[in-house]
Amino acid sequence: MTAGTLHTVSVGPGDPELLTLKAVRVLGAVHCFAFFAKRGRSGHAVGVARAYLRPNAEALRFDYPFTTELPPDHPDYRLAFNAFYEQVAGMLARRLDAGLDVALLCEGDAFFYGSAMYVFDHLAGRYRHDVVPGVTGMAGGWARACLPMTHGDDVLSVLPGTLDQAALTSRLAVTDAVVIMKVGRHLPKIRAALSAAGRGADAIYVERATMADERILRLDDLPDDDHPAPYFALILVPGRKRAR
Amino acid sequence: MTAGTLHTVSVGPGDPELLTLKAVRVLGAVHCFAFFAKRGRSGHAVGVARAYLRPNAEALRFDYPFTTELPPDHPDYRLAFNAFYEQVAGMLARRLDAGLDVALLCEGDAFFYGSAMYVFDHLAGRYRHDVVPGVTGMAGGWARACLPMTHGDDVLSVLPGTLDQAALTSRLAVTDAVVIMKVGRHLPKIRAALSAAGRGADAIYVERATMADERILRLDDLPDDDHPAPYFALILVPGRKRAR
């Protein structure tokens, strides 16, 4: 029997109209799909993809083992996530070995900070792969903000908000355009770093871009006492329009 | 009369199946579209979009004033390009003023190193805007290369190949994942910088990803005496899988 193909399918930033034609074709073809979700939540990627999936396809839901119970630098955190992704890979491998094609859904672009990469890492080389790229959350954000990001020879840096303040500040000093990911509870530190690097005035705060409840405003207009930013909120700072 | 809407439409990395549903809807609706092309070439973005455009829509073709006759740091280069984009903006403004919706096509993602940004800069605030984000060339590249780029807390830097060797080397030293854009004639310098930063062994060379004639190989396997790399070739170096 020929093993199935693992389709890693990027579903884009949230608006179901921002799926690619290829993603729609693959989602409509597979009889098995898999997705990640936080416990107690319906799962973001599957919500975006739902309209394009076969109603009778097998759905494999994988709940992340935990999100905030352990700090990410705790050794048990990595071990638990590694075991989790290994278990997911095993479940998908059983379907693939049975000749079934499987679509693993991923928000944004799957190979850009996507959970699907960790599964891919376990299965790479063992099955046929088809990776469907997608519109990233940051591209959805700068489109909705009407914010041209990188002109000519601008450098763009994508920084996780988890970096410490000194590291953020020094990296902000040597870049033109900036995207800060994983803002969440790191917002006060990120504000301080942007201010120290003299980039705060141009910073745009983006939550759930391209979705019905998106929120896009100048970071300076976001109150300090606002509710904690979601983990997936972004900060965008456009480039300096360096000559090409 | 109500002025038209300027739709800035990203058409993705090259495979026409990597357009978004939204891009296809907009392209099928407008009675006027505009695109850039090099003199004597058919135009890349319009080639990708062609199947989705109305056959009787007005096509506005804009030939870049020059590409290699002047170095980009020459003052006349910026002046000529600025005059060019101002002229393009004027042509589009006439259609928009007449109430016509116009789609300006752009390869990859329009607000990520796209020519459409320069037109947008001239027209911003004067017309209703709708920016359709797209799959970037780099995302098309790492999908086709089956190369997960950024895990966990990896930093990603997007660097123009036009930077001098010392600047490239020092920036390579402080990043995890790297995309080098605009490779072209800068390839020997880029190789030297990657080697000096100890990142050469992981570098992947990508030409025309997702297109019929794509070319993806380890940079180490690209002969030194290969034909000059195209301007739009990319180098990808995956991240270091930093813990999330």
Descriptive overview:
Two copies of one chain form a homodimer. By secondary structure, chain A is α/β, with parallel strands linked by helices. The first copy, chain A, folds into two domains: 5-135, Tetrapyrrole methylase, N-terminal domain (Cobalt-precorrin-4 Transmethylase, domain 1, 3-Layer(aba) Sandwich), CATH 3.40.1010.10; 138-237, Tetrapyrrole methylase, C-terminal domain (Methyltransferase, Cobalt-precorrin-4 Transmethylase, Domain 2). In chain A, 30% of the residues lie in helices and 20% in strands. The first copy, chain A, is built from seven helices and ten strands. Chain A has helices at 21-29, 44-49, 75-97, 116-123, 137-144, 165-173, 187-196; strands at 5-10, 32-37, 58-63, 102-106, 128-132, 156-160, 177-181, 204-207, 215-218, 234-237. Chain A has a five-stranded parallel beta sheet with strand order 3-2-4-1-5, sandwiched between helices. In chain A, strands 6-7-10-8-9 form a five-stranded mixed beta sheet, sandwiched between helices. In chain A, strand 8 and strand 9 form a beta hairpin. In chain A, helix 3 (75-97) crosses helix 4 (116-123) and helix 6 (165-173) packs across helix 7. Chain A is globular, with a radius of gyration of 19 Å. At the A-B interface, helix 1, helix 3, helix 4, strand 5 and helix 5 of A face helix 1, helix 3, helix 4, strand 5 and helix 5 of B. Strand 6 of chain A pairs antiparallel with strand 6 (156-160) of chain B.
